[in-house]
Amino acid sequence: MKIIAWPAFKTKYKNPYNWLLYSHILEQGVIVEEFTFSKLFRQHYDIFHLHWPTETILRHPKSVVALLRAITLLLAINWAKVRGTKIIWTIHDEYPHSLLHPQLADWFQSKFIKQVDGCISHSKMGKELAEKTFPSLQYIPHSVIIHGHYRQIYPNKITREAARSNLDIPPNYHLLLFLGYIDYYKNVPHLVQVFRELDPAAWILLIAGKIEAPELGTQISNLAGNDSKVKLRFSFIPDEQLQIYFHAADLVVLPFQEILNSGSAILALSFDSPILVPDKGSMKELQELVGVEWVKLYSGELTTEVLATALDWAIQGERSLQANLENLEWQVLAKKTIQYFENICTKKNHSKCSL
């Protein structure tokens, strides 16, 4: 089988999800290549597998350029389909985030969906939401293949004591951590406000990650004020430093206003950090996979009562030394993906993809 994927391996530096998936697919004897327009036009592929197509193709700030990019991709997809390539879309989010051209995005997505031969969601809830949002997806093969873990990908040798010392966390304090790209929908200002209202004894809140917009950083900084129990580190966290933050933390909180799937949640669990997440999207399914001792859900808005209960749960609850992530093993998920691709290839013409 020959697959061209966008992206395949090149985004490992910012999110290794694709790299992990396709590396394990390669190990099972399937060819995977990074997408370029020239490759798609010159060569034949059995599968064209796309991730985040709307966000990626329309990223250019000039609407005219974004439109030309969108038209070019649609023509390339049409060319590939004429030659027998199946178009597969992995749906990572309910809606694209941080779109520069919303109307153009709606137009492109409506055209793109008509070309799709099959799609993959990471959860049952994701599948239901996708088919509710785009009813035409009900009539094409739609598989649920969960998001794999991030264990053994990042350096992970530091001790808890060394990690806490590195971050200047006093010995008698617990650490509440938000780590990741800080965008508006992630609700970080509200987290800071709730933490300061609760003012929990012997707890420090650390916000770490790159800021989407300077004004968002200003808002968070103003809410934090001069509170010594709120630490702000507005910068990209290199891979080798992730272990420091997660091993120092007693609880990782992701107070997103909207969430379907979350690589951030799986990343924290991969470092064996318990998490607090809203009962939205696929978080209930994640809790069922990993266990209630590792994933705590809350309904509605994050409040001081919710946060107080979660802080007690984090330090008083009994849990194993490691989160059970056996359901998130990449070898199994890669095999399921290959089987799904083979089923797509046989659906209409009853002849298998080239092997």
Automatic annotation (TrEMBL):
One of its GO terms (molecular function) is glycosyltransferase activity. One of its GO terms (biological process) is lipopolysaccharide biosynthetic process. Transmembrane segments: none annotated. Pfam families: Glycos_transf_1 (PF00534). Residues 160-258 form the Glycosyl transferase family domain. Its EC number is 2.4.-.-. Keywords: Glycosyltransferase, Transferase. InterPro entries: Glyco_trans_1. PANTHER family: GLYCOSYLTRANSFERASE WBBK-RELATED. This is Glycosyltransferase. It comes from Mojavia pulchra JT2-VF2. The lineage of its organism: Bacteria, Bacillati, Cyanobacteriota, Cyanophyceae, Nostocales.
